Every structure is written in C-alpha cells, then in structure tokens.
Amino acid sequence: MMNRQRESNQLDFTIKNIMLACFGISTLWDGITTALGIAAIIDAKDIFGYALCFVGGVVILGFGIGTQVIFVKNDIPHKIMRGLWVLAVAFDAYTSFMGNAQYIVLRKQLAGLFDVVGSLTLGQIIITVGLTILVTASPIMISYLLEKDEKAESGLPAPP
C-alpha cells in the first residue's frame, strides 16, 4: 500500500513538472507576443520604443505569475493589485492576440484590431484566439501549480 502511494506521488510530481515546463514555454511565448503586440500597437521604431515593449511584457508576466500572491489577502494594497491584475490580463490577451496575428500569422503590421481581424480567415481567427487564451492563461497556471507546492512544503492545506 505504501509503495503504491509513493508511486502515485512520484507520478503526480512528474506530471506536475511536465505541466510546469509546458506552461513555462508558453509563458515565455506570452511575454514575447505581448511585447510584439505592444510594438505593433505603438509602432515602435527605436530602442526606447522596444524597451517599453520589453518592460510592458515583463510587467504583464509579473501579474500573471503573481496571481496567487495577489489574491491571497483582502487588504487595500491587494484589492488594488486585483484591479490592476484584471486590467493586466485583459491587456495581455489583447496585446498577445495582436502580436500573434500581426507578427506570426499575417507577417505585417496593420492599424488596429478591426483591420487585423478583417485580414484573418475564420480558421486563423479560431487558432489565434484559442492560442491567445491558452497562452494568456499559462502564467496564471504556473502561479497555481507553484502555490500548491509551497503549501505542501509548509504543511498548510493547499487552496482548492
């Protein structure tokens, strides 16, 4: 019985590590497409424009990866962070969609969302929207997977 439990724990650990690796790769892609989306939207042309895009991508990733920390307390700073988190996730989805659509699918920059969507086929829209949703969720998934590890190590019950 004890061996079966240990084997189950080892399998859970292996699956969780595979999930973390997959979400990690997707999170990197999220940061890249967020930066590319910002670049397309602001029409970045110089080092300062691209620096803004990079910093924007990093900040957005910080909100996603920090999801569990942001939602753990109910004080004023955490309430403010939750409001900013909602904006960050919406911003992430929009900029990731624009980055994926313009730089990866269309390989050209267009003026705005309606121009981009109008240039995509239905299949391209479905794939780009679907991948954007999954990629945007990846840093949040990492936050949840890592939070459960920290709770298990501390002996506290993990959140549902």
Question: How does this model look, in words?
Answer:
There is one protein chain. The protein has 160 residues and is mainly alpha-helical. 84% of the residues lie in helices and 0% in strands. It has 6 helices and no strands. Helix 1 (2-42) packs antiparallel against helix 2, helix 2 packs across helix 6 (122-154) and helix 4 (76-105) packs antiparallel against helix 6 (122-154). It is globular and about 60 Å long. Mean pLDDT is 91; it is low at 156-160.
Shape: globular
How many runs of DSSP E, i.e. beta strands?
A: 0
The portion of residues forming beta strands comes to under 5%
Please tally the helical runs, counting DSSP H or I stretches of 4 or more residues.
Answer: 6
Helical residue percent band:
over 70%
Low-confidence stretches: 156-160
Biggest β-sheet: count, sense, barrel?
none
Report how far apart the termini are.
26 Å
User: Which structural class best describes the helix and strand composition?
Assistant: mainly alpha
User: How would you state the average pLDDT, rounded?
Assistant: 91
Work out the radius of gyration.
Answer: 19 Å
Order of helices and strands: HHHHHH
